Amino acid sequence: MIQINLNLVFTIINLLVLYILMKKFLFGPVIRIMDQRKEMIDQQFEEAKKTEDRANQLQKQYENALKSAKEESYQIVEQAKLEAKAQAERTAEEARVQADQLFAKAQADIASEREYAMRQMQGEIGKLAMEAAARIVGSQAGEEQDLSMYDQFIEKAGDPDDNGSC
């Protein structure tokens, strides 16, 4: 049979008291500290997850902004190309208009110079005809007769503008 020794009873009582004291003064605070640490770690994980979610959201926003910036820059480049092409066409058209104006002015100048030269030649031809007629007639009959002879000569020679020759 089991003998219960007084020493054994005291040891069991001591162990029970020690267990109760340890539970109250040691295990309780340690468990509370561990629970607090666990809550703090859980909060940090939650904050880390929130931060990661915000970072992902910001990354998506930045990617969207970058995409729209690329699209906008592409549109700006395309618009600049269209404007440059339109400006080049306007410049070419202005150059054509100026060239046409210069050509028309040059033709007008040529026509007026030709007319002036024809008038001078007619005058010279008229003088020569008058001198030739005066030599043939032998005398100077007068200015009125000279003019009528000049008119007759021009009529017989023909007007250069009538037949289109120069």
How far from one another are the termini? 161 Å
* Number of discrete helical segments: 3
**Average pLDDT figure:** 85
Beta content = under 5%
State the secondary-structure class.
mainly alpha
Summary tags:
91% helix, 3 helices, mainly alpha, 166 residues
Topology readout:
Elements (H helix, E strand, L loop, with lengths): L5 H132 L5 H15 L2 H4 L3
Helix pairs in contact: 1-2
Protein name: ATP synthase subunit b
Keywords: ATP synthesis, Cell membrane, CF(0), Coiled coil, Hydrogen ion transport, Ion transport, Membrane, Transmembrane, Transmembrane helix, Transport
Main location: membrane
Summarize this entry quickly.
With 166 residues, the protein is mainly alpha-helical. It has 3 helices and no strands.
Could you walk me through the main structural features you see in this protein, from its secondary elements to its overall organization?
The protein starts with 5 loop residues before the first helix and ends with a helix. The radius of gyration is 61 Å and the shape is rod-shaped. Helix 1 crosses helix 2. The chain has one domain. It has helices at 6-137, 143-157, 160-163. It is built from three helices and no strands. By secondary structure, it is mostly helical.
